[in-house]
């Protein structure tokens, strides 16, 4: 009920609203009728038919990072921090898929725009000044050093959005692009922004809020998912080998030959491992809601103001839902089956506010993982490598995730 029938009676609590000030009122933070409308307008951009066209984007970013890995491991197995590479890969992928803009954080780590984005998305790391946004309505106007930095970052992001928007509108006007039957832009650059432009009459500020939202919601989550996936695979080299064998047999020509979602979807074992990795390592482990009125669920009254913690990871690990081996990493559990209960697999949440980018993320995740595992072996940097993580909206490694990486020739 909290996630479906009474979803709008359980908005996010005030605490989460600090993010709304920084990120903007896009899909993640909109509530009620506004959320319903935004979701309806944005859904076509995230259909499977559309997101599978982003495979070339995912692959071009993947290849860039693989070139960097090739150089690092040129002289043999090397231990290095892998997380920053995947964080930049997923940032560039979402940047290009959302705006049609190459943020180029993979090669140019310190651009002003990437720094601005980092500032905004990591604003919550400084607990005190950040959460003041939620509790003191006028706080954002006080010119503290922290507030100035956040405003400056937001301004840089905002200017880029305006330029991109103008460029796209000009292109549309000069090429006479029209909406297709499905309401989707028939433009040559069918990134998410192009679709938004064709599908709605949103103002520049509204579009900017959605763009910031996609970067925020789509970047850290996928980067975290890949990081934890690699650590799990480093602890299960047998699974890695089976994946590698499958990818190499199905796509013998190497990474250059991965061009379509169909190729990736045909990798049965990679698909099973992906589901299991995402079940065992959800980058969002829980989400908070607060009852905005008294609601009766199963005869129990949930009083107005009650906080509800929906623990996604607990459901993913529930023995009642998954059986006695729920806590074990076992890709074969997915052989020929889906989760028996829709609310058992909660990595992307379920219901009205489930992840709109689920299909996008799954394909991206598989493109990246299949390619890297086919070419490299990932091993723990020390025996029983500890899991050093921090939880700020998503769970991410605090140590950059050092892993031992070696290249296997022939792919
Ligand atoms: C492995 C990667 C991802 C995971 C695990 C994930 C997980 C989630 C979860 C758990 C939620 C619900 C959060 C809450 O209500 O507190 C969510 C919402 C959302 N996600 Fe994702 N996500 C991923 C990737 C993406 C990508 C790539 C995009 C965009 C391209 C995206 C866009 C969104 C948006 C816009 C929402 C808000 C939906 C709404 O409230 O209607 N996510 N995601």
Describe the 3D structure.
Helix content is 50%, strand content 9%. With 411 residues, it is mainly alpha-helical. Strands 1-9-6 form a three-stranded antiparallel β-sheet. A two-stranded antiparallel ribbon has the order 2-5. The chain has a two-stranded antiparallel ribbon with strand order 3-4. The longest helix has 31 residues, at 145-175. The structure holds protoporphyrin IX containing FE.
Question: In the CATH hierarchy, what is the architecture at level 2?
Answer: Orthogonal Bundle
Q: Order the strands across the largest sheet as they lie in space.
A: 1-9-6
Given as residue ranges, the uncertain stretches (5+ residues, pLDDT < 50) are 178-186
Record field, number of beta strands:
9
Mean pLDDT: 88
Q: How many whole angstroms does the radius of gyration measure? A: 22 Å
CATH topology type: Cytochrome p450
Q: How many structural units, i.e. domains?
A: 1
Ligands bound to this protein structure: protoporphyrin IX containing FE
The fourth-level CATH homologous superfamily is: Cytochrome P450
Strand residue content: 5-15%
Organism: Lipomyces starkeyi NRRL Y-11557
GO molecular function: heme binding; iron ion binding; monooxygenase activity; oxidoreductase activity, acting on paired donors, with incorporation or reduction of molecular oxygen
Protein name: Cytochrome P450
Pfam families: p450
Q: Could you provide a short overview of the structure?
A:
The protein is 50% helix and 9% strand. By secondary structure, the protein is mostly helical. It is globular, with a radius of gyration of 22 Å.
């Amino acid at each position: 009920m909290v996630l479906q029938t009474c979803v709008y009676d359980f908005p996010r609590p005030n605490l989460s609203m600090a993010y709304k000030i920084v990120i903007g009122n896009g899909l993640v933070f909109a509530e009620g009728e506004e959320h319903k409308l935004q979701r309806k307008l944005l859904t076509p951009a995230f259909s499977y038919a559309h997101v599978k066209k982003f495979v070339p984007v995912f692959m071009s970013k993947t290849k860039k990072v693989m070139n960097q890995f090739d150089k690092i491991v040129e002289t043999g197995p090397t231990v290095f921090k892998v997380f920053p590479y995947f964080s930049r890969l997923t940032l560039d992928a979402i940047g290009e898929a959302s705006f049609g803009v190459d943020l180029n954080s993979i090669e140019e780590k310190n651009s002003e725009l990437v720094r601005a984005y980092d500032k905004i998305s990591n604003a919550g790391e400084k607990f005190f000044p950040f959460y003041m946004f939620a509790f003191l309505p006028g706080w954002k106007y006080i010119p503290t050093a922290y507030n100035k930095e956040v405003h400056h970052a937001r301004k840089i992001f905002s200017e880029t959005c305006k330029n991109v928007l103008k460029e796209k509108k000009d292109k549309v006007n000069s090429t006479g692009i029209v909406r297709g039957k499905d309401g989707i832009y028939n433009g040559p650059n069918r990134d998410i922004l192009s679709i938004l432009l064709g599908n709605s009459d949103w103002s520049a500020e509204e579009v900017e809020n959605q763009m910031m939202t996609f970067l925020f919601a789509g970047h850290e989550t996928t980067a975290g998912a890949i990081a934890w996936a690699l650590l799990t695979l480093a602890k299960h080299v047998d699974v890695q080998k089976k994946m590698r064998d499958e990818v190499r047999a199905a796509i013998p020509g190497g990474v250059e030959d991965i061009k379509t979602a169909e190729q990736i979807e045909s990798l049965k074992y990679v698909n099973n491992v992906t589901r299991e990795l995402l079940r065992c390592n959800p980058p969002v482990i829980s989400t908070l809601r607060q009852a905005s009125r008294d609601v009766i669920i199963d005869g129990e009254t949930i009083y107005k103001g009650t906080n509800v913690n929906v623990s996604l990871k607990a459901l993913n690990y529930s023995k009642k839902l998954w059986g006695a081996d729920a806590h074990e990493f076992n890709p074969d559990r997915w052989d020929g089956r889906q989760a028996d209960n829709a609310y058992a697999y909660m990595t992307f949440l379920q219901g009205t506010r489930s992840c709109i980018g689920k299909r996008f993320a799954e394909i991206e995740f598989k493109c990246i993982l299949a390619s890297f595992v086919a070419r490299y072996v990932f091993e723990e940097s020390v025996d029983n490598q500890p899991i050093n993580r921090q939880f700020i909206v998503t769970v991410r490694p605090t140590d950059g995730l050092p892993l031992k990486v070696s290249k296997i020739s022939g792919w």
